[in-house]
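Margin note: ligand = adenosine-5'-triphosphate.
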Amino acid sequence: MITVDTARKHYGDFLALDDVSLEIPRGSLTALLGPSGSGKSTLLRSIAGLEDLDSGTVTIDGRDVTDEPPQRRGIGFVFQHYAAFKHMTVRDNVAFGLSIRKRPKKEIDTKVDGLLEIVGLEGYRARYPAQLSGGQRQRMALARALAVDPQVLLLDEPFGALDAKVRTDLRTWLRRLHDEVHVTTVLVTHDQEEALDVADRIAVLNAGRIEQVGDPETLYDRPANDFVMGFLGSIASMGGQLVRPHDIELVRDREEALARDAEVADSPGVIEATVERVVRLGFEVRVDLRADSGEHFAAQLTRRDADHLHLHRGETVFARAGQRSSVVDRVVLASAAPAGAGRLADEAVRQAAIA
Ligand SMILES: Nc1ncnc2c1ncn2[C@@H]1O[C@H](COP(=O)(O)OP(=O)(O)OP(=O)(O)O)[C@@H](O)[C@H]1O
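Resulting structure:
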């Protein structure tokens, strides 16, 4: 388990971490999710020991590591731009942390072969980094980080520089790897889909603070505030309340809409609206609407529901939030934690210092 307690960090006058407290359970895959500049990397680097905190503590498995250098924290770190040693083969890059610890060659070979198998690079042992694809290089980076049996694996946008398809493949692969290796993993990402897909817990950051921590389902269905609701999925403002476009039901008949709406707690009510546009998006259909109040919002329907309604521009419909809608749950605590290359070669040396 990693415990960050009231971590505070300034860069000059700028407050990057504002008394952040967070518990990361042992063996979990936790995502730090938030917009650019929210402090995700700063928090991750503080756990790694790559940033010094102004105040607050970091504990890993019960050991206070706040004043320990990175190499004594028992961590493996993978950066977005992995700076491999270009003159070394894949085998030697992965073996680096073990070689500098002077482990016997036989032990190193066994370990490296095992890791290359786990990351799917068995046949690439003798290649050089320049002979790998971006995705393969990041997998090599993960193997190198795992080589020294870290207690904690810290990943800073590890797939950020890769194209969308490779990114999606690698996150599925990361999830499988984590199920196999079970090392406590913290993943920084600004991509909500990536976080929802791979993490078992998500901490949402905003302006140096944690807005909410929880499992993906809770954050999506019961966000603690409008920020979390908006950051984890699309939103529409209907009757002054935030709803997910796919939670909006459209009905042609006012009485039917009112009767159905009576069954829904915390409903924003039934909104009379005019259809402005009907857009087919593959399987789904987006209906752009204008309420009587002038408010614009969009509902997302399945094609079947849209076909059934047979909507056209200028027609009147009655919109309401469906029964199991995502709504902001203001009772949820904002934080689940307890109180209280510049030059690439230099970068490689710095990264290797952690290994
Ligand atoms: N070394 C530094 N010196 C000065 N300001 C910094 C430094 N590192 C980060 N910052 C600032 O601190 C804030 C948080 O940065 P951080 O990298 O933690 O954000 P982030 O959420 O990881 O963003 P991104 O997704 O863009 O990487 C940003 O406003 C950034 O400009």
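The pocket of adenosine-5'-triphosphate is lined by residues 11, 14, 16, 34, 36-42, 190 (CB under 6 Å).
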